[in-house]
Structures are given as structure tokens and as C-alpha cells.
Inverse folding.
């Protein structure tokens, strides 16, 4: 995501008047455009089209309407610059189908005014990035280059829509539980690893932990795993992924039998994963596992939004201090804006001790979300993190371990609300 200057909503037209492309110093070129991906500008205003195409040194083609763009997308690979005339719900709704129909094209929305609502809408429909005026040309070219690098090479299977490699398992409908928070360092990864290990220990059914913190995930470190493959590898083979391939891509946590799909080792690989692809991967995992736990970063991007939308349950981790509670409130209002049903949201209060001066029941009431666990603060947690052995294994009698075991029990007994899926017909695939 580009950085936005929220204090500088210059009128887009005046931006046009003051920043003629040829006045701008020679920018870095888009090296990878040579690979075959072109830039396509869409806007009904010819001045805007000229301005945006002028920002692309290698040249870009331009069309007036989305329908014209779709004709082009059907026969090539494009980064589409959606001009301000596309910043409306009808146009964005139309773009929603693009990821499916044109997998070798991506879009960037250029808008004179960026609102939170527009940003959410754009990310939800699969727009890769949103750029607001005044446009930083170098930054725009960097963004285009980054997006081009993530576009998959043309393969016959990309457009074939062939047979479904997992269609033999109509009964398998695993429960997808994502662990999220709007505050970094609140205990998401500690929760995800302990819950996943507790579930894996207690069930014969396959349990998978996915590190959805694609840039800086630390699930593998927390479980002391040395993995050969990552989420990015699974995503790159989505079209042909079957059970055996998944089995090979995952790393088994020997002490619990948990199957782990860690984050890529290179943070830049994160850019290669789109929200749509993540949602597809989750559907594959759901049909091969009983529980899919996903550890998320504390940001709203399209991977996170798609993961949350694909989840049966979302555990919101919050610390018991005012900044944490404030952030949870913001997160909850964003999730409600995105129409995530409230019954899927479960609050986990981390470091919830009597020593903390906040009244837990008061906090729960003010947030209005059902609480599934209170995890106390305990030195066993950092010790376990440093050892690479979750508390439920390394300190099973601690109150922290008991809290995570109880949380796992809620899911196994199907007591936690939000279990919209069928629980029957599961069997073990991995291990
Ligand atoms: N209940 C707890 N008691 C003591 N320490 C804790 C507890 N929960 C988490 N911590 C400490 O907080 C640190 C951060 O936890 P964790 O990595 O799970 O947070 P996170 O929300 O995943 O962070 P990020 O947003 O960076 O992904 C851990 O290294 C751990 O030592
Ligand atoms: Mg984390």
C-alpha cells in the first residue's frame, strides 16, 4: 500500500495543472514491463487520461470506459490505472469480477480524495493499491513495478478452469479460525500457535496453521520449525494444488502433529499474494483439514480482509489497556462496515490480570463482543516464545496454557458461536 498524505487532499485538477508530466525529472523506468504486462489507463476525462499516460515513460494505452478496458484485458496482461471517474461504487462493483476473469491483470485506483470508505471498498473488490493526488510519479512507477512482479506468468492452466483436484471430498468442511487484532504485539501469534497446537494434540483430525503475516510472520520461529516452503509456494501452485502437494508444502510440528504453512522468508514475496488468492487457498485448506488457524498481521489489507471474510470465527486479541481497547473499537467498526457478522467475532483478552486496573466486565460490555478467553500475563509466555515451544506444551500446568486449552475445547465442543459449517464427515489427510 502506498503512503497517503491524509492532510493534502489537493484538488486533482489543480494537481494536473501544476504537475505536467514533462516537467517531472526523468523517473526510473518500469523494467519488468518488458515481460509483457502493459499499463492501461481508464478515465472518461481525456485530460486525465493524457496526464496519467504521460506519467508512464514506457507508454501506456488509454480507454474511456471499463467495458473498453475489459475487451483489452481479455487478451493480455495489464496494470490498469483506474482514473477518478472510476471512484464510484458502481465502477468498483464491476471491477470485483476482474480477479476471476482476468487473473493476469491488476488495478490501481487513482483518486483525488481518499476516504476510509473508498479504501475499504477498493481493497474489497481486489484493487491492488490506491493512490491519491498529488501523485508521486516515482512512487507510482514503483507500485506498478511491484504489481507486475506479482502477476503470474502465462500458463495454460491459468485460463483453463479445468477439473477441481479436490472434488473427491464433498464432506470435508473444516472450520476456519483467524486470529486478528488492530494492535501489533498484542499476542496474536502466541494465541494462534497455542490454539493450533492445542487443537492438533486433542484431535485426530488434520489441523493446519497458516502464517498470514506474510511480511514478518514468526509462526515458524515460535514453533522452531525449519520450513522449505511457504504460503507463497502454495499460492503459486493454486491452480494445480491437490492433497499430496499440500502435504509436501507443509511442515509438520512433530510434537503435536500440527501442519504448518509458514510465511515466506523474503518479505517481498508478500506482494505476490493477493487477497483473492488467499481466499482460494483457504477454501482448499478447508476441504482438506478439520481446523484451519490463520495468524494475521495488525493491518487491514486485501489479504487480511479476504481472510477475515473467509473465516468462520475471528478471534480478536486485545490487551487490557486503553490504547488496545480503543484500537479494538476501531477494528470492530471497520469489520462491521465490511459486514462481518458479529457472531463470528470473539474477543480474547490477553494479559488480563487482576493487577491491571481496568474492569474486565466493563470492557466486555463496552465492546459488546462475546469474550472467549482471558489469558493472564505470565513470564512462561516469553520463555516459550524464545524456546520455540508453545506454552500448552512447555508449561502445560500454567494458567496461560489452561486458558488456551479451554479455548480449544470451546471449538472442539463446537460451543463457540459462528460454526456455520457442517462438522461431520471429517477424516485425517495429513500425517
Ligand atoms: N499473556 C502473555 N504474557 C506475557 N507475555 C506475553 C503474553 N502474550 C504475549 N506476550 C509477549 O508479547 C510478545 C508479542 O506477542 P505476539 O508475537 O504473539 O504478538 P503479535 O500480536 O503476534 O505481534 P505482531 O503484531 O508483531 O504480529 C511475545 O513475544 C510474548 O513474549
Ligand atoms: Mg504476530
Amino acid at each position: 500500500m502506498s503512503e497517503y498524505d491524509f492532510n493534502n487532499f489537493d484538488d486533482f485538477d489543480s494537481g494536473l495543472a501544476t504537475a505536467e508530466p514533462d516537467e517531472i525529472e526523468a523517473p526510473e523506468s518500469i523494467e519488468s514491463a518488458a515481460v509483457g504486462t502493459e499499463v492501461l489507463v481508464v478515465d472518461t476525462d481525456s485530460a486525465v487520461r493524457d496526464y496519467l499516460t504521460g506519467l508512464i515513460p514506457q507508454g501506456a494505452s488509454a480507454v474511456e470506459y471499463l467495458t473498453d478496458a475489459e475487451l483489452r484485458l481479455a487478451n493480455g496482461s495489464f496494470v490498469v490505472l483506474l482514473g477518478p471517474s472510476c471512484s464510484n461504487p458502481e465502477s468498483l462493483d464491476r471491477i470485483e469480477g476482474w480477479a476471476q476473469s482476468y487473473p493476469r491483470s491488476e488495478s490501481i485506483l487513482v483518486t483525488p480524495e481518499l476516504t476510509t470508505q473508498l479504501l475499504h471498498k477498493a481493497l474489497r473488490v481486489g484493487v491492488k493499491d490506491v493512490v491519491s493526488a498529488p501523485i508521486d510519479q516515482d512512487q507510482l512507477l514503483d507500485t506498478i513495478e511491484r504489481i507486475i512482479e506479482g502477476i503470474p506468468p502465462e500458463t495454460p492452466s491459468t485460463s483453463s478452469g479445468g477439473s477441481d483436484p479436490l472434488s473427491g471430498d464433498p464432506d470435508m468442511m473444516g472450520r476456519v479460525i483467524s486470529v486478528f487484532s488492530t494492535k501489533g504485539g498484542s499476542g496474536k501469534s502466541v494465541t494462534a500457535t497455542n490454539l493450533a497446537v492445542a487443537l492438533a494434540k486433542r484431535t485426530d483430525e488434520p489441523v493446519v496453521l497458516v502464517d498470514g503475516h506474510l511480511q514478518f510472520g514468526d509462526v515458524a520461529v515460535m514453533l522452531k520449525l525449519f520450513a522449505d516452503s511457504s504460503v507463497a509456494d502454495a499460492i503459486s501452485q493454486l491452480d494445480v494444488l491437490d492433497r499430496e502437494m499440500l502435504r509436501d508444502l507443509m511442515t509438520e510440528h512433530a510434537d503435536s502433529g500440527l501442519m504448518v504453512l509458514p510465511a515466506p522468508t523474503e518479505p517481498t514475496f508478500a506482494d505476490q499474494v493477493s487477497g483473492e488468492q488467499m481466499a482460494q487457498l483457504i477454501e482448499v485448506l478447508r476441504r482438506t483439514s478439520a481446523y484451519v488457524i490463520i495468524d494475521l498481521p495488525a493491518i487491514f489489507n486485501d489479504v487480511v480482509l479476504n481472510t477475515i471474510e473467509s473465516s468462520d470465527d475471528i478471534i480478536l486479541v486485545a490487551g487490557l489497556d486503553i490504547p488496545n481497547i480503543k484500537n479494538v473499537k476501531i477494528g470492530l467498526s471497520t469489520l462491521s462496515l465490511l459486514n462481518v457478522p458479529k457472531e463470528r467475532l470473539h474477543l480474547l483478552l490477553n494479559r488480563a490480570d487482576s493487577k491491571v486496573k481496568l474492569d474486565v466486565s466493563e470492557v466486555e460490555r463496552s465492546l459488546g463482543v462475546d469474550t472467549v478467553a482471558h489469558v493472564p500475563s505470565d513470564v512462561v509466555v516469553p520463555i516459550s516464545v524464545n524456546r520455540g515451544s508453545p506454552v500448552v506444551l512447555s508449561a502445560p500446568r500454567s494458567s496461560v496454557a489452561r486458558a488456551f486449552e479451554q479455548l480449544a475445547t470451546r471449538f472442539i465442543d463446537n460451543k463457540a458461536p459462528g460454526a456455520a459449517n457442517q462438522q461431520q464427515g471429517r477424516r485425517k489427510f495429513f500425517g
Notes: The chain has two domains: 12-153, 175-412. The longest strand covers residues 313-319. The chain is about 40% helix and 15% strand.
